[in-house]
Amino acid sequence: MSYLPHTTKPMSPTPTFPTSTGAAKICIGIIGGLGALAGADVHGKLLRSIAAGGHASDYAVLYEQHPFQGEGRLEGGAPELAGRMLYIYDMLQRYEGAGAHCAMLPCFISHTFLHQLRIELRLPIISLMDALLAALRQNAPAARTVGVLTSDYVLGQRLFERHLEPAGYRVLYPSPQVQRDRVMEAVYGQAGLKAHDRSPGAVALLLEACRSLMAQGADLIVPGTTEIAMIASLLNVAGIPAMDSNQAYVDYALAIREQMPPQSFKIGIIGGVGPAATVDFMDKIIVNTSADRDQEHVKLIVEHNPQIPDRTANLIGDGEDPTLAIYAACKRLEANHADLIAIPCNTAHAYLQRISAQVAVPIINMLHETVHHITRHHPEHRRVGLLATSGTIQSRVYHDAAAGASFELLVPDQAHQALVMRAIYGERGIKAGYLEGECRADLMLALNHLVQAGASVVILGCTELPLLLREDAAFPLGERRIVLLDPTAILARRCVELARGGA
Q: Is there a contact between 482 and 458 (Cβ–Cβ < 8 Å)?
């Protein structure tokens, strides 16, 4: 056996973590309080390893330990998980706000729900189980049968089997009697390691458990609680080939160079412009997502603010400027860790040039995506009609987006544009909640007008219009068939594509 029980040398050269602050230091946060002594042990070993590697000026370490009230145990010895989850979530939020680039969670029980934390949080959490696997491969390449000393709960959750068996390791546990009278007593008993650093009685109990595992054929003992890892050196002195899993975790945190596992992607939506179009856009994201269960859909965060001043009223009249309201909505989505921002409002795109440089999150331009879609999927069409608000048309945002494209953009004449505006804003218009009758008749007249002018593709360039006419590659209009394009559907498909690619 060539296992090295304790090392202060990182497994690879100076690491780099993903950073959004641009700060010179790599900031690692350690969640304390889940085991007061064990958390302090990991903290101390991390500081010593950083110093031993000569990188003290490169790292900042955050370590907070608050009284944790979730150590109570339910019937059958299971830990009370809800309080633990909330405590960890709040601590990680504090660390993220303090500028941490990643976090260490020195608690095997907590790693049974690591996937839930990663879904809800942006801060990368370094996997303790990945660290153990890396240490096994590097420090004990000949070991294939691993004896594990862990809590009843972690044992029952098969945490070690799920991570080690796919890598070719056989996992052994003590007999039920040894598990109860030796392992659990050594950690949780009155004289156990939870309360007493290096308790001689606890060490004696764990030595018996280790020898029982060695008798079963274990090549190596892996502590499956951070408290047992604290006394790994004492087990080594007694002749037990035991890994210091706390040190392995530290080594891995300092060695890992690749990106942390990708966090769940979140699409930010500026809603309320208008309200029904927002719901329609959300539905299109869901419809365009290939998923067999709820958890496979994309996370959405919606800033639904119908009080954003009317865009058209500002562009063609003396209405209040919506720039600040749109910007504030973007910044709120940015603060809530949206990975991209979508605005299901064509007219609002007239204000993007003013704000996009001040928003760190990319805003996906629906108009550019629509022009790209036409160029890619309908290159043979030379005249494209635009049905939109007067604000969108007068701001020429679609004309700017189509500059240099291979098609000519057609808009309605003044009389037919008035019909489009009545279909959207009229007393019986879409914004008033009507989807049939006068509003549809007005829109069809404007559509026919554009087709008569030569348009073979028509953009439904107001997000309310697809509530009346759905996207259709062969929409029947008299004896002709035209292409009706829905920019919100195009935007929804692009957002899903980006979310699936983790862009």
A: yes
